[in-house]
Amino acid sequence: MKISLIAAMAKNRVIGRQGDIPWKIPGEQKLFKKITLGHAVIMGRKTFESLKRSLPDRTNIIVTRQKDYVADGCIVVHDLLQALKSCPQNEDEAFICGGGQLYQAAFAMADRIYLTVIPRDIAGDTYFPEIPATEFRVIKSETIAVAGIEPYDFYIYKRIK
Ligand SMILES: NC(=O)c1ccc[n+]([C@@H]2O[C@H](COP(=O)([O-])OP(=O)(O)OC[C@H]3O[C@@H](n4cnc5c(N)ncnc54)[C@H](OP(=O)(O)O)[C@@H]3O)[C@@H](O)[C@H]2O)c1
User: Fold this and answer.
1) For the residues 121-143, what does the mean pLDDT come to?
2) Residue 149's pLDDT band (cuts 50, 70, 90)
3) What is the pTM of this model?
4) Which amino acid residue places its CA nearest to atom 30 of ligand 1?
5) Of 7, 56, 63, 117, whose Cβ has the fewest other Cβ atoms within 10 Å?
6) 86 C-alpha vs ligand 1 centroid, how far in Å?
7) What is the DSSP code string of the chain?
8) CB 20 within 8 A of CB 50
């Protein structure tokens, strides 16, 4: 099973502010849905609480250290290895969907990174990790043009070692 991170970040690597995502970009949610639909999505407890409900048509796995945590429609686990073991047996690609703590914890295991980049700095308090050029190469790069806002970029990185 491939392990992939999927995130959207600003130019200054910000992914969140005060428990939420500090932007709304048309098409970004659609892209996230298209890529993750039918797969296992693994997220930290804070990201789950920011979504307020499980993501439909995906196996939702929530990581928390709280032993008695309950999340409606989700599998609750207490570390990343347990999260990976909880993916359906036939899963070919599991997605780590954030937030900052989960990306950091899973970075060393990631085979791929799906990354949307908004080409301006945005104030925030949660960041996506640096991607070392010695560890990953870009296998897809696309600029997405949307009416009324500046175009944004979408990359797929593949681990080279
Ligand atoms: N732009 C994007 O693509 C994107 C995507 C997702 C989220 N976000 C944003 O990111 C922010 C949230 O990120 P965050 O870093 O604050 O929180 P987070 O990673 O979503 O969740 C952190 C929580 O997950 C649990 N956890 C983390 N690592 C763990 C581990 N190794 N083992 C067991 N449990 C672990 C802990 O839960 P307990 O405290 O319950 O033990 C921890 O408090 C929000 O602003 C959100 O909107 C942005």
Assistant:
1) 97
2) confident
3) 0.97
4) 79
5) 56
6) 18
7) -EEEEEEEEETT-EEEBTTB-S---TTHHHHHHHHHTTSEEEEEHHHHHHH-SPPTTSEEEEE-S-TT---TTSEEESSHHHHHHTS-TT-SEEEE---HHHHHHHGGG-SEEEEEEESS----SEEPPP--TTTEEEEEEEEE--TTS--EEEEEEEE--
8) yes
Question: 50 CA distance to ligand 1 centroid (A)?
Answer: 10
Residue positions counted in the chain: 161
Q: Whose CA is nearest to atom 44 of ligand 1?
A: 19
Domains (ranges, CATH) in the chain? 2-159 (3.40.430.10)
